[in-house]
Specification:
Largest sheet: 6 strands, mixed
Bound molecules: pyridoxal-5'-phosphate
Order of helices and strands: HHEEHEHEHEHEHEHEHEHHEH
Number of helices: 12
């Protein structure tokens, strides 16, 4: 990924629910010259070389329905689609930091798990201190990995939901300005990198085959919206389908809850909607998948294909299958498999 210009986005800690005006995703707001950053930082360059160009595979779909294709994001260096996000968000900060010593930089972010995993690896390789706000429901394997990489972790009680995880990071950023918050839910680089990498790869892999629908689970909505923007530029008629947990759907008016949900995704509660997705609300269909269904589908998919997909991938697989069932066999539905699941989930599945 290379882009001319050197204007970078300065993440300002606006509240999550502040309006996200049209124009916020103007590419000039996240101009990133990853080549220049890579030249200065070999560890960043190495991570970038291993990133992306993930496989697009045909997956089991409904009999008599459309073909379902999925992009295998566990192939990224730290094992998830969030490796792309870590690379872009940290790249923007490194670009802005310039030639100053990396020891002066301190990175702060909240995460559902995958982004913290990716960022902690990049930061450890670079020698940049990292601090993550996570839910107390985070798996032991992740907490051990972060501790092993020297990252600092602040846990928020899972009953308070992901909304309070985000807000805790905002509170830290406001109170301790020495920490640079990446702010994945409002940082345009999160969408633009998905548009330029995942979306562009997908278009190349489709080889001119027009997809009827793009189905993606919503955490920040960066994947859904970024890839949608790329697809729409080439295939204007493509439908957008967002997927969130049935336990707290997108835009739910309910308060956040501590119920188990499939990974990395979910509504915020109190009617708060993910800023990127608000820009595409009128054009996006919403579906929900419960954790028990997604968890069972991990096992079913493994039985059918021998492949391990995570719970958000399983949710996307189920939702894409529902969309495909209502389309003719000549149609194509595309989706994404963000990761391969956690050791804890595979242990619970007894595999
Ligand atoms: C495993 C997993 N699936 C899906 C997502 C959703 O990605 P996005 O933030 O681009 O909406 C995430 C985000 O953290 C994730 O970790």
């Amino acid at each position: 990924m290379h882009q001319a210009g050197n204007t970078t986005y300065s993440p300002a800690p606006e509240p999550l629910e502040a309006p996200y005006p049209p124009g916020s995703l103007d590419p000039a707001r996240a101009a990133l010259d990853t080549a220049a950053v890579a030249e200065r930082h070999p560890a960043y360059a190495k991570f970038g070389q291993e990133l992306g160009n993930t496989s697009l595979i045909e997956v089991p779909g409904p009999r008599g329905g459309a073909t379902v294709l999925a992009k295998c994001e566990w192939e990224n260096p730290a094992g998830s689609i969030k490796d792309r996000v870590a690379h872009a968000l940290l790249g923007s900060v490194l670009q802005r930091h310039g030639a100053r010593p990396l020891g002066e930089l301190r990175i702060l972010e909240y995460s559902g798990g995958s982004l913290a995993n990716a960022l902690s690896r990049l930061c450890a390789d670079l020698g940049v201190p990292a601090r993550f706000v996570l839910s107390s429901a985070s798996p032991r394997s992740l907490l051990d990995t972060l501790a092993g990489r020297g990252a600092r972790v602040d846990l928020v009680d899972k009953e308070r939901g992901f909304l309070e995880v985000v807000r805790e990071a905002l509170r830290i950023a406001a109170a301790e300005p020495g920490w640079t918050l990446l702010y994945q839910h409002r940082n345009p680089a999160n969408v633009l990198l998905q548009e330029r990498t995942t979306g562009a790869e997908l278009i190349g892999q489709l080889g001119g085959r027009a997809p009827a629908a793009w189905v993606a689970s919503i955490g920040t909505g960066g994947t859904l919206v970024g890839v949608l923007r790329a697809l729409r530029a080439r295939f204007p008629a493509v439908r957008a389908v967002g997927v969130t947990p049935a336990e707290l759907p997108y835009g739910s008016e309910q308060p956040p809850n501590g119920r188990r949900k499939y990974a990395g995704s979910g509504g915020m509660g109190h009617g708060i909607r993910q800023p990127f997705v608000t820009l595409y609300d009128d054009e996006t269909e919403q579906r929900t998948v419960s954790y028990p269904r997604a968890f069972a589908a991990m096992g079913e998919f493994h039985d059918l294909t021998g492949l391990r997909i995570g719970s958000s991938a399983a949710a996307n697989w189920l939702a894409a299958g529902e969309v495909a069932a209502a389309l003719p066999p000549s149609a194509t539905v595309v989706t994404v498999f963000p990761d391969a699941g956690t050791p804890e989930e595979w242990e619970r599945l007894g595999r």
